[in-house]
């Protein structure tokens, strides 16, 4: 019985950890996008450099979204391990995941907008 209680406690700790990781991933993605924005604002990028920056923006955004979705699936798996009859295991907390995905996407769009529409003051 004590092993079952320890297992449940570790599963709940895993839920807390995974939720925190979602925030860390979103923060890291926005920070990296901010770095690209700062570089773009600091120096005048030519066309090939803007293309490379756009690829990095896409990779950062895509990787961030992929990790957030994988963490949401992991949360579902842990919730089902705690309660196999949990019908809403994936949907619980998905609104926060969508907000974090939205923040990453919005940051990417803002950086792209400034990359192509506002020349740096050089």
Describe what you observe in this structure.
The chain is mostly helical and 122 residues long. It is elongated and about 65 Å long. The model has no long low-confidence stretch (mean pLDDT 91). It is 83% helix and 0% strand. It contains three helices and no strands. It has one domain (2-117). Helix 1 packs antiparallel against helix 2, helix 1 runs parallel beside helix 3 (94-117) and helix 2 (47-82) runs antiparallel to helix 3 (94-117). The protein has helices spanning 2-42, 47-82, 94-117.
Helix content class: over 70%
Provide the residue-averaged pLDDT. 91
* Number of β-strand runs: 0
Domains, number: 1
Rounded to an integer in angstroms, the radius of gyration calculated over CA atoms is 19 Å
Ranges where pLDDT stays below 50 over 5 or more residues in a row are none
SSE string, helix = H, strand = E? HHH
Would you tell me the structural class of the helices and strands?
mainly alpha
- β-strand amount: under 5%
The shape is elongated
State the helix count: 3
Main sheet summary: none
Distance linking N and C termini? 69 Å
């Amino acid at each position: 019985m004590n092993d079952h209680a320890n297992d449940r406690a570790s599963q709940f700790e895993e839920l807390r950890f995974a939720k925190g990781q979602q925030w860390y991933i979103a923060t890291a993605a926005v920070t990296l996008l901010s770095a690209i924005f700062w570089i773009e604002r600091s120096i005048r990028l030519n066309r090939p450099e803007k293309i490379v920056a756009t690829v990095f923006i896409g990779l950062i955004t895509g990787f961030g979204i992929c990790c957030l979705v994988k963490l949401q699936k992991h949360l579902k798996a842990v919730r089902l391990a705690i309660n196999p009859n949990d019908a809403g295991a994936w949907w619980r907390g998905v609104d926060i995941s969508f907000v974090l995905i939205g923040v990453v996407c919005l940051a990417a769009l803002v950086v792209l907008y400034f990359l192509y529409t506002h020349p740096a003051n050089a």
